[in-house]
Write a structure and sequence with these properties.
366 residues, alpha/beta, 3 domains, 5-stranded parallel beta sheet, 19 helices, 40% helix
Length: 366
């Protein structure tokens, strides 16, 4: 199905949406983007006259986590976005069509809306010099499909850290030659909504901004929207006062951990991570990782898998000839509770020396 030609306001009225409900939606969207209250009437007027854009969503080397995140957005909801504000003409997971019918819908939407559709990409993709067989859709390589789709796009949104920075597929040794979307697209407006997965409301907030103003929001050096990535997790964290007082949890169940002290010494990457987790939180604003007692992994930053964070880098070599050997990353993942800190120190030492951790060495720390 191609994009509707009438305005968002007309479509909303056809669906029985009241003026009050529409203004409530505009207020929520403006709040998401940290816009001043004075801009709400202007945003409402712009949205009312805006044409529903055709949206083509391409999924490449990814885990569907970004789509799962979007479907849990609660302000505005995914129903608001898909059914009222945009025309989602192609999406592997959410569309009803499959096989040849699905690819025909994508091609028709690109043809009917050439130069005007919004292209959303999640997942990294093998670069132009990589084996095209690493990742294909309907027999077409990811690279060829992206290049075809981007030609007629008005703007591009890279959703998730894999699309924004390469993510897990790009982690060393990067067997597929994975690259980020921005490594390949240089001549189109592009915004990165990073995170593994991104905060649901950040995805919907960027879409709402584009609908209201016809352009992408102000971006940081990594092409991320400043409204959501302008401050570090550390600056917004409710545990920050404990950091300033020098009060840190040393293990996951010591007195400091139970009292909610700072998790920096347990590997928290909050000071070097920029995202909106601390203010928007997850599951309809219920909680977020640090509130649940886990250090920030820095998932919205470039190369966060290889940076190590709480876990050791995936690039630590493994002796695959011995079943007694654990990689540093696996060793860190297998332990928890009170022994996590001791095991982590053993793992980090091995990572620094580029040597695998044996089962005997790990057992000695336990």
């Amino acid at each position: 199905m191609t994009a509707k030609k009438h305005s968002v306001g007309e479509h909303l009225r056809d669906q029985g949406v009241s003026r009050r409900a529409f203004l409530k939606f505009c207020t929520a969207s403006a709040s998401l983007m940290a816009l001043p209250p004075g801009l709400i009437p202007a945003m409402a007027a712009a949205l009312e006259q805006a044409r529903r854009p055709s949206v083509i969503w391409l999924s490449f080397q990814e885990c569907t986590g970004c789509t799962e995140s979007l479907t849990r957005s609660h302000a505005p909801t995914v129903e608001d976005l898909i059914l009222e504000m945009i025309s989602l003409d192609y999406h592997h997971t959410l569309q009803a069509a499959a096989g040849e019918a699905a690819e025909a819908a994508r091609e028709q939407a690109m043809k009917d809306n050439f130069g005007n559709y919004l292209l959303i990409v999640d997942g990294s993709l093998p670069g132009p010099d990589a084996n095209p067989g690493y990742s294909t859709i309907a027999g077409v390589s990811n690279y060829a499909m992206l290049m075809e789709a981007v030609e007629g796009a008005a703007a591009v949104i890279a959703v998730g850290t894999c699309a924004a920075f390469g993510g897990l597929p790009e982690a060393a040794p990067n067997p597929t030659g994975a690259v980020a979307v921005m490594d390949l697209i240089k001549d189109k407006p592009l915004v990165n909504v990073s995170g593994c997965p991104p905060v649901p409301m950040v995805i919907s907030g960027v879409l709402a901004h584009y609908l209201a103003f016809g352009r992408l929001p102000e971006l940081d050096e990594y092409h991320r929207p400043l409204a959501f990535f302008g401050q570090s997790i550390h600056d917004r964290c409710y545990r920050r006062p404990f950091y300033d007082k020098g009060l840190f949890a040393e293990t996951f169940d010591d007195e400091g951990a139970r009292a909610g002290w700072c998790l920096y010494r347990l590997g928290c990457k909050g000071p070097s991570t920029y995202n909106a987790c601390a203010t928007m939180r997850w599951n309809a604003g219920t909680s977020w990782p640090i509130e649940a007692g886990h250090p920030c992994l820095g998932c919205s930053e470039p190369r966060f898998w290889d940076a190590g964070s709480f876990y050791a880098p995936l690039s630590v070599p493994t002796d695959l000839s011995s079943t007694q050997v654990l990689t540093a990353g696996a060793a860190g993942a297998l332990v928890g509770g009170t022994v996590a800190t001791l095991a982590r120190r053993t793992v980090e030492t091995a990572a620094a020396s580029r040597q695998p951790v044996t089962a005997d060495e790990l057992e000695q720390t336990l």
